[in-house]
Amino acid sequence: MKEVYMPINKTRKRKWTANNKQNYFMAMCGVLFLLVFSYAPMFGIMLAFKNGDRAINVFQALIQGKWVHFKNFTDLFSDRKFVDILLNTIGLNMLMLLINFPAPIIFALLVNEIRHKKFKKTIQIMTMFPHFISWIIFGGIIIALTDMTTGVVNPILEALRISNFQNPINLGSAEYFWAEMIIASLVKGVGWGSIIYLAAIAGINPELYEAAEIDGAGRFHKAIKITLPMIAPTITVFLLLQISKLLGNSYEQFYSLQNPINLDRSEVLSTYIYFKGITQRRYSYASALGLFESAISVVLLIVSNLISKKTTGRGIF
User: Fold this and answer.
1) Which of 16, 43, 86, 144 could covalently link to 20 via disulfide, CB atoms 3.0 to 4.6 Å apart?
2) 56: Cβ–Cβ under 8 A, 6 or more apart, which residues?
3) Into how many domains does the chain fold?
């Protein structure tokens, strides 16, 4: 019998087009940015295990400094102020997670129900605008509005019978700081945070809503039974990312509203790292504090992702 040889189809390599090169160049710019600003600075982690406090040349202390192993971490955990600041950070971030995280989702659902296109765009622009104001300027606006003598908030509280002209409320004090920070974060971030959820809602198949209308479902039932389940993967991803940031805060956000009166309630890990590392020049102590914050964030992300995968089947990785 004659042997039959089947022809072998050799796959040809695809030539790179101009579009492929542009995409590759843009991707490499992102990788280069991460290498320079995210991975290269990780070389400084060694300072957390060396004696570099109050060094004149930080780079020399990083390379030639004496190894002290975990001494900076033992000093960190034995510091009573660190424990208070850690509890302060976790407590405030938990409240912000419970209040500030659902706010953009609810706002996106409400904006999605607006049928007038111009009014809808106006609402989106007005709520997104505060995001583009830096926290330093935005914090100055908040301080001016809540001032005891010249601010407009106290007269409003007086009209609501919450305060009076003789005894105005000092909204810059420690007891009101958490409420002030949560409200300021909502005003500044709810519009910008709703963009990703509005984009996810726009990708939902409109036939699902049409079928629900035939069955007699109203707007509320469509939002609960269709919209929320369809954007649940997006919500899960952002929820896991927010959980991983329970120890992280924006330095500018807290520094802009911080003063000696509310320091007991406004001091968080980000401002404490700046105070120790820059003001007191305790570089090794601040490095250990930053490494501790990053390690806990990674652990929170991994644990919350595993729990989410087991319970809902969804996760980041």
Assistant:
1) 16
2) none
3) 1
